[in-house]
Amino acid sequence: MTINPSDIDDTQTHNHRPVFISLYVSIVGGFRFFRFFFLSFSFIFFLLLFLVFSFSFFFHFVFFLSFFFLSFFFFSFSIFLFCFPVFPSYLFSFPYGFHFFFLPFIFFSFVSLYLLLSWLHFCFFFSSFFLSFFLSFFFFLSFFLSFFLSFFLSFLPFLLSF
Known about the structure:
Layout: H1 17-83, H2 94-126, H3 129-160
């Protein structure tokens, strides 16, 4: 025995079906429009966020490298001035030479401290754990080495004056 679909009277049980279908279509259509708007807005937002972070990463990298090379230049310059005295000899006596070599020490210490803090911020914000650990250890080491070497170079003319 087959059931003919035209024999089923569904007007009593499902008499509000067209209203529910139209409500469903309007809700789903609204959600589809909202989903498209949300996805396009979130894509633009994350694209802008990515551009901001990439430019921030680039400028951080450029500034850190410039500070690193600048501090290295001043450190090398202080070594050069100690090894090859191109200035008059009274600059290397105790009151003058001490201040003369103490100036690169102060500058290099502050630059290396800024470099250390900046690289720590950079490492823990942008990198994985192992890379941040390696870079932070490297810059801790470079900071303390530069600090003690520049401190030693600052007091070396004073020690050699005896």
